[in-house]
Design goal:
Elements lengths: L1 H5 L12 E3 L15 E3 L14 H12 L1 H13 L5 H9 L3 H9 L7 H9 L7 E7 L3 E7 L3 E6 L1 H4 L2 H16 L3 E6 H6 L1 H13 L7
Parallel strand pairs: 1-2, 5-6
Antiparallel strand pairs: 3-4, 4-5
Length: 213
C-alpha cells in the first residue's frame, strides 16, 4: 500500500499503515511504536531500498487488503499506463482464481478507485455499467448504468463548498432535461455503507429508471 501510494496508484484514503518490502530473506528491526506491515515475498531489486515492481506491489495489495483493493489498484495502474501486458501476464500466473477474475474484468477507463469498486461490486447484477461516459450538456459522468442512470461518486476534494455543490446540482438538472436520472454518493457511503448504495441503485433499476423512455 505504501509503495502503491508512492507510485500514484489509487489506495484507500483511510489506510495510513506503513508497508515494508523485506524481500525473501530480509531482517526486520522492531522500533518504538512500530506498526509496520512486513511483506516477505522474493523478487529482484536494484538496490536494498528499491521498490518492488508494479505487479509485485499489486500482488502484495491482494494478499494484504483483498481483491477489492487489488482490483481498484489494477485499474488505476492500467489508466496510468503503469501496468504492461507482460505485467498482467505475470499477475495471472502468480495470483489466485479470484484475482484472475479481477484481472479479466479490469479496464483502463475508470477515473478513480471508487468507480472501480462500484463497478466490481455490481458485476453479478447483470447491469451494463460504463465509466467516464460523456453526456450531452452535462459532460463526463463517473458511471452510467444502462442508458439512463447516472451514478456520481463525490470525492471530498472535488465536491466540497457551495460553488462545487451548485455545479453538481446544475449537472444533475441538465441530465434530467435530457432524460437521465442521477444518483450521487460520497466516499464514506461507498466504503463504509455499501448496502445503502447498492439498495438505492437497485431500487432505481427495479423501477426501470436505468432505461431511456
Amino acid at each position: 500500500m505504501t509503495a502503491a501510494r508512492h507510485l500514484g496508484l489509487w489506495t484507500l484514503a483511510d489506510d495510513h499503515s506503513i508497508h515494508v518490502w523485506m524481500g525473501g530473506n530480509g531482517h526486520g528491526y522492531v522500533h518504538a511504536d512500530c506498526a509496520c506491515v512486513a511483506h516477505w515475498d522474493d523478487g529482484p531489486a536494484e538496490h536494498p531500498f528499491a521498490l518492488p515492481s508494479i505487479p509485485r506491489v499489486l500482488r502484495q495489495m491482494l494478499r494484504c487488503h483483498g481483491v477489492e483493493a487489488f482490483f481498484a489498484a489494477v485499474e488505476s495502474a492500467l489508466r496510468l499506463k503503469k501496468l504492461s501486458n507482460s505485467g498482467m501476464d505475470w499477475l495471472r500466473h502468480h495470483t489466485n482464481d479470484v484475482a484472475r477474475e479481477a484481472l479479466a474484468f479490469a479496464r483502463s477507463d475508470a477515473d478513480s478507485g471508487l468507480e472501480s469498486l462500484v463497478r466490481w461490486r455490481l458485476r453479478h447484477r447483470n447491469l451494463r455499467v460504463r465509466t467516464q461516459m460523456r453526456i450531452i450538456s452535462v459532460g463526463r459522468v463517473d458511471l452510467l448504468i444502462g442508458d439512463a442512470l447516472i451514478v456520481e461518486i463525490d470525492g471530498a476534494g472535488n465536491h466540497d463548498g457551495p460553488s462545487n455543490r451548485h455545479r453538481d446540482l446544475r449537472r444533475d438538472a441538465h441530465a434530467a432535461i435530457w432524460g437521465f436520472v442521477s444518483l450521487r454518493f460520497d466516499y464514506a457511503l461507498v466504503i463504509h455503507d455499501w448496502p445503502t448504495v447498492e439498495q438505492a441503485i437497485l431500487a432505481y433499476v427495479d423501477r426501470g429508471l436505468h432505461r431511456r423512455p
